[in-house]
Amino acid sequence: MNVNDRLVGKLLAIRLSFLLLALLTGTVNAHAQGIDDALNRFKGKVLLLRHPLQSNSQQYGSDGKVLSSAAEGAWTVYSGVLVDKMKLQPDLLQIRGRRILFFFPDGRLTSMEFRTIKNRLYPPFPPQIKLELQLDHALGSPEEVRTAIGRVFLMNTSDLVDALPEFWRGCLRDQLVYDPTAQPELSWRDPPRKQPGIQPSTAGAMVRTDPDDKIQTIYHVGSEVKPPAAIYSPEPNFSDAARYEKFQGVVVMSLVIARDGSVRQVRLLRPVGMGLDDQAVARVKTWRFSPGTRNGEPVAIELNIEVAFNLY
Questions:
Q1: Which end of the chain is more exposed for a tag (fewer CB within 10 A), N or C?
Q2: Residue 305 and residue 298: Cα distance in Å, rounded?
Q3: Hey, how many other C-beta atoms are within 10 angstroms of the C-beta on 309?
């Protein structure tokens, strides 16, 4: 092989090396861009925490387990986060955002960013929130990014409804729409119209049976069914967020008064938000009644009640 052949060979080898390097660099850049795009999909969106912790600095293990000792609160106050920044490191995902509050004017879900109000003392928490998720390995794909974020935040309507307390589920299941990667993140659908020919239960008629709760037959108040009478019914407290925002409302709920006068099966029918619904349900569960009767015998009775929150 002469000198010219060797020179041509070296030039070809150099060109091939540059080509391979360019291909490798392009692959790495495309991979990094895919990770960045996956993170950016959540920026500027409202995400809902799986654990509505009251702390404004929260730490999670790589499995999504809460590492801090903060108590959980009402989802309408403590779950909403408007994401501002996400910073990814090989062993840590940092998220910075702002608190979002939820309420139900005219029965429809609405959100608002929490801000401290000038000349108003004692805000319930700072507007900003920071979260850290530990990682057991560097995230290698957009799918892994989404999976990691899903360990801290709820990712769809079904997950959200299932994560909430039972008394919330009935009034949200068919009306709430949640997609953390789309706009709007939370939307509210009007309830479906009742089908023709289906009538509500008549007064005094049997509503249903519930052998698991040992209530058995449940009645509505009617000519043969006399209503229960409250003997202990303390008023619920305002949530800190509602008091700070000077937010008022009337919570409507359904409940069953058992034959022993205790409260069972509380369900929200018309929530108001800002944490007031959870306060109302927690307090109503402590109420006691002299039981309703049918033909003079104690029976379980289902009825609707209103709990008003008014600031004077």
A1: C
A2: 20
A3: 22
Number of domains in the chain: 2
DSSP H/E element including 253: strand 249-257
Entry field: residues in the chain: 312
Q: Are strands 57-60 and 128-134 parallel, antiparallel or unpaired?
A: parallel
Query: Model confidence over 88-102: pLDDT tens digits?
Result: 999 999 999 999 999
The single residue listed with the structure tokens 């109000």 is 117
Residues 81, 173: one domain? Answer: yes
Task: Provide the pairing of β-strand 186-188 with 128-134.
Answer: unpaired
Tokens 């037959």 found at: 217
Exposed (0-12), middle (13-18) or buried (19+): which is 112, by Cβ within 10 Å?
Answer: middle
- Per-residue pLDDT of 158-200, as tens digits, reads 999 999 999 999 999 889 999 988 877 788 887 665 444 333 4
H-only helix segments in 138-227: 142-150, 157-163, 166-172
User: Do 174 and 57 share a domain, yes or no?
Assistant: yes
Instruction: Please say whether the beta carbons of 214 and 262 come within 8 A.
Output: no
> Residue 261 sits in a domain of what CATH number?
3.30.2420.10
Please report whether residue 18 resides in a domain.
no
* Domain range enclosing 175: 41-188
**Confidence (pTM):** 0.85
